[in-house]
Specification:
The chain is of the alpha/beta class. The chain is built from 11 helices and 11 strands. The strands form 3 sheets. Strands 3, 4, 5, 6, 9, 10 and 11 form a 7-stranded mixed sheet that branches. Strands 1-2 form a two-stranded antiparallel ribbon. Strands 7-8 form a two-stranded parallel ribbon. A hairpin with a 6-residue loop joins β1 and β2. α2 crosses α3 and α5 crosses α11. 28% of the residues are buried.
Length: 319
């Protein structure tokens, strides 16, 4: 039986797609790492890396070997987690990543429920800009992340599970003349004529974020040119600017929990498939999620689904 005593060497090369960069990450010399890979290929009797490609790519044998190493790592993580549960003196640990704005909405509701199940758990909350969450998961710094994703952008190293599909709601100041007109059209059962939005200012999230990207596509698809724009990466800033009469925005519907504290705002569901995006759970492929992490995920899913179900009544009520 062939034993690889340093499986992280090969896996780091796979992640970095470059032997020199992998050697830097591992704090060893590039010749030593190259020699290690060469000996490994010789022992296995198969080429693992296609060195003719830049960046480095895996051969079919390399893909199979990576899958084996990751599966072995999964089993070891499972063993450690189950051993930890047997040892009552060790606290369970869960590391979760989420955007800072969504975290301020989620955590006050879900953490009391989670800690009632696992009172000795150590919970590490990583609140970062949404654009950085995938990198945290890929680097193994967190067990999982909760974030909006865009269909058609797969990542071979991550598993993405949809928790729910969120609507993007049009948000305006209640006394805005255009908002008053929209409210009348809505009450009459008419489709909203969105052309007056072109004369307003759009307060939008950066297009590098899923929500900003989707909003921009929706406007272009509907031939709505909004020249006046303010772009930011903070949803709280967006809502406060709209409440101050600076323009309009779009908001993911689970954010109504936060937005309901602004009585001067009104929300419209434009009932467009183009304004719907997944709220997803992301974790590394072949990683092991501990029972505590799975409990936290279940509580998050139940919370998000309940909020979305309650939103229909809120929107109809014109909060």
């Amino acid at each position: 039986m062939i034993q690889n005593r340093n499986p992280e060497y090969f896996l780091t090369v796979v992640r970095e797609k470059n032997i020199s960069r992998a050697a830097e990450k591992l704090f060893i010399s590039q010749p030593s790492l190259s020699q290690h890979i060469a000996k490994l290929e010789e022992a296995l009797g198969a080429k693992l890396l296609d060195r003719a490609q830049t960046p480095l790519a895996l051969t079919p044998a390399g893909e199979l070997y990576r899958s084996y190493l990751e599966s072995t790592d999964y089993l070891y993580q499972k063993f450690e987690a189950e051993l930890s549960e047997m040892n009552s003196e060790r606290s369970l640990s869960v590391d979760m990543a989420v955007g800072s704005w969504r975290g301020s909405i989620l955590f006050p509701d879900i953490l009391p429920r989670f800690l009632a199940l696992h009172p000795n758990a150590r919970v590490q909350l990583h609140e970062y800009p949404v654009s950085e969450l995938s990198a945290l998961v890929q680097a193994g710094k967190v067990d999982f992340a909760v974030m909006n994703t865009i269909s058609g952008r797969p990542d071979n190293d991550l598993v993405t599970e949809t928790i729910a599909y969120e609507r993007l709601l049009l948000v305006m100041k209640r006394d805005d003349p255009v908002a008053l007109r929209f409210a009348q059209e809505q009450q009459a059962g008419l489709a909203l004529d969105l052309r007056p939005l072109c004369q307003e200012r759009l307060i939008t999230l950066s297009e590098s974020l899923s929500v900003g990207h989707l909003v921009n596509n929706f406007l272009e698809k509907n031939f709505l040119t909004v020249p006046q724009r303010i772009s930011t990466t903070n949803n709280t800033t967006v809502l406060k600017l709209v409440a101050a009469g600076m323009g309009f925005c779009f908001l993911v519907e689970t954010g109504l929990v936060d937005a309901a504290s602004y009585p001067e705002l009104v929300f419209f569901d434009l009932k467009s498939d183009d304004l719907t995006l997944p709220l997803s759970l992301c974790y590394r492929r072949n990683s092991f999620l501990s029972p505590a992490a799975q409990d936290l995920i279940r509580i998050i899913e139940e919370y998000c689904l309940r909020v979305i179900e309650d939103n229909d009544a809120l929107i109809r009520g014109g909060i």
